[in-house]
Design a protein that fits this description.
The protein folds into 2 domains: about 1-80, Methyltransferase, Methionine Synthase (B12-binding Domains), Chain A, domain 1; about 90-210, Rossmann fold (3-Layer(aba) Sandwich), CATH 3.40.50.280. Helix content is about 60%, strand content about 10%. The chain is built from 9 helices and 5 strands, in the order H-H-H-H-E-H-E-H-E-H-E-H-E-H. Strands 2-1-3-4-5 form a 5-stranded parallel β-sheet, with helices on both faces. Helix 1 packs parallel to helix 3 and helix 2 packs parallel to helix 4 (about 60-80). The longest helix has 24 residues, at about 60-80. The radius of gyration is 18 Å and the shape is globular.
């Protein structure tokens, strides 16, 4: 499918106008929305994610690719909803209470969307109650937490504890990330997983969702 390859290539290049035009063309040609999504947009973002992981491209390139992805999604979303296409999985993400840093968290959100997941981004300074409440409300089986300050890291443990108290542990899984965070810390607080960077976080979340 040449047009799908073109969508993927233009997305890799961060050309949002071309992605929008080509996506519309594919829709007009009667191509199924799921096929355009999987073999065009997500295929392109997969390459972007891999190149970012091995440091062939950098944050500005990823942000441009994300803008291109959203341009295509703007056209596909109504069609996917109409076709009642199930999302691969839902993830609630946010920077924990007391932490206002969100660049890393935003990047993880972009990469997760690029992998075809539905992301509910709560932003920064998110209280444990809000993480858990939102996951329950939206039926999201994964909560992703980010911290850049060592002083806010304990909040991650509070979220894990709250899930245990409400007997939701196991049904709602947790993944943590951020500069001061480690596997050791994840084990210490009882988190289910740890992502050392945005690309790795996608792999770990997909594993938690049983997609890997």
């Amino acid at each position: 499918m040449e047009i799908l390859q073109q969508i993927a290539n233009k997305l890799e290049q961060g050309d949002h106008e071309a992605v929008f035009t080509l996506t519309q063309q594919a829709i007009d040609d009667g191509m199924p929305a799921t096929q355009i999504l999987n073999d065009g947009l997500i295929a392109g973002m997969d390459v972007v994610g891999e190149k970012f992981r091995v440091h062939e491209i950098f944050l500005p390139d990823v942000l441009l690719a994300a803008k291109a992805m959203h341009a295509g999604m703007e056209l596909l979303k109504p069609l996917l909803i109409k076709d009642d296409v199930p999302v691969l999985g839902k993830v609630v993400i946010g920077s924990v209470q007391g932490d206002l840093h969100d660049i890393g968290k935003n990047l993880v959100g972009i990469m997760l969307e690029g992998a075809g997941l539905e992301v509910i981004d709560l932003g920064a300074d998110v209280a444990p109650e809000r993480f858990v409440g939102t996951a329950v409300e939206h039926g999201a089986p994964v909560i992703g937490m980010s911290a850049l300050l060592t002083t806010t890291m304990p909040v991650m443990g509070q979220v894990v504890k709250l899930l245990e108290e409400r007997e939701l542990a196991g049904r709602i899984r947790t993944i943590i990330g951020g500069a001061p965070v480690s596997w050791e810390f994840a084990d210490q607080i009882g988190a289910d997983s740890y992502g050392f960077d945005a690309a790795n976080a996608v792999v770990r979340v997909k594993a938690l969702l049983g997609l890997e």
